[in-house]
Amino acid sequence: MPPGITTLAADAPTLSAANTGFMLICSAMVMLMTPGLAFFYGGMVRVKSTLNMLMMSFISLGIVTILWVLYGFSLAFGADVGSVIGWSSDFVGLSGIGVTELWDGYTIPTYVFAVFQLMFAVLTPALISGALADRVKFTSWALFVALWVTVVYFPVAHWVWGAGGWLFELGVIDFAGGTAVHINAGAAALGVILVIGKRVGFKKDPMRPHSLPLVMLGAALLWFGWFGFNAGSWLGNDDGVGAVMFVNTQVATGAAVLGWLAYEKIRHGSFTTLGAASGAVAGLVAITPAGGAVSPLGAIAIGVIAGVLCAMAVGLKYKFGYDDSLDVVGVHLVGGVIGSLLVGFFATGGVQSDVKGLFYGGGLDQLGKQAVGVFAVLAYSLVVSAILAFLLDKTIGMRVSEDDEISGIDQVEHAETAYDFSGAGGGAATRSTPPAPGATAAPTNKKVDA
Prior knowledge:
The chain is mainly alpha-helical. Helices cover 61% and strands 3% of the residues. It has helices at 17-44, 50-77, 110-128, 138-161, 166-170, 178-196, 212-231, 241-268, 273-290, 296-313, 316-320, 328-346, 365-395, 402-407, 409-414; strands at 80-81, 85-86, 429-433, 444-448. β1 and β2 (85-86) form a beta hairpin.
């Protein structure tokens, strides 16, 4: 997010219809990312868990929206309190905000900024859900989302983007969420899975994706929405920085797809659709913090590095024995760390700010700041998320029973299944021929031409 701008009264910004419309479109695009994530994750699980995976993302749209209005926006972007949290009574319930009141230093209404940031807050806990596939009670997950955004996401968003937040004041560059969104969610996922344990059959059963077309559809929706996520984070479209971020988003993502697939071909001998989709998400994650500070050539480097290293990282769960079901740690945590740290190498000093990275003569100063931001958010989210999961597990329980997990969490938690396999199927319709009056023979089925 861009830093606040101090202006004189004579130079005070006025509402821009163009920027306001642009930001509303970006907000809608970011909202679409959560259903896109649901499809992406939903296709990666087995049939018996598809609906639960979809619902774990969708419920965030309901819970986080309400909490954001009630107090979340105030905690994240209210007046600074001790550099760790915000609070403004006017933001509580969004009740004290004027219709045409502008966000400080910008040409968009505060309402527009609030709804744009809301979509980030909705998406972030949904990202965590991919690590917990097949085994978490839906009620416990919903309560975890409410608690997690309150004690982790809202404070961390203030640290990184809120005026007065300690990482903001330190000078950590995070254009659109490498720390606040992706490292935050990835570390949280790791913390929770260390508490709740592995799926039944982990490292024994195949657990292959049930619908790769659904995965590709979800990846495409994420890629599309990410342009709003990244380019919109400059909060306007007046100086070309958002355009650079748009270009870098595309460039890094394409490079990451190629990097992941190249690694996959060398390591495993095949180019897979799951690898292409995962590589795209890895590139999107890595460019998120860095895209406003680097050139397109830097974006290519970041994308390739992220594609290869994230592809390598997804295998760590088998080596170290933590069951990250859909590779949230390997893609979002590792990708977020990569993108955030590479700012310290590839920042050109000619886009969002004059800060230069090591490769452009800036020395190690910015790299050090980026490392502080990375490891502060990682440690806080990991520890607090594990504590929340532990408390929920010891009170209401986090996991479904082993029998319920084996039989299928969709039926147990939602009383539904994603697909109806009870129909006759095939390419021809059938109809029943009733028996003659008084006959006792069973009806016969006769085919009818389609």
